[in-house]
Design a protein that fits this description.
binds zinc ion; 80 residues; 5 helices; mainly alpha
Length: 80
């Protein structure tokens, strides 16, 4: 993952809410803040809506890779 300023800032300030177009880290971070993700996490499965968002915002990644990246941000938030 290329290191973009918005992601670097988010690591220091998880609630910054700054996103850069074309950055997979930023896309994953935006997904992590979506109700779609909360619903999928609550149900413990890939809901059709969540699958759709992963595919739309992280089209170059497999579902597992994209989900892992989203989780890396939610885990980070949990530690913060
Ligand atoms: Zn970024």
């Amino acid at each position: 993952m290329s290191d973009c300023p918005a992601c670097a800032n988010a690591r220091a300030h998880p609630r910054s809410g700054i996103f850069q177009m074309g950055c997979s880290g930023c896309a994953a971070r935006s997904i992590a803040s979506m109700p779609t993700f909360f619903n999928a996490a609550k149900e413990g499965r890939f809901t059709p809506e969540y699958r759709g968002v992963l595919h739309q915002l992280l089209p170059k990644m497999t579902q597992a890779e994209a989900h892992g990246l989203v989780r890396s941000w939610t885990d980070q938030k949990a530690r913060a």
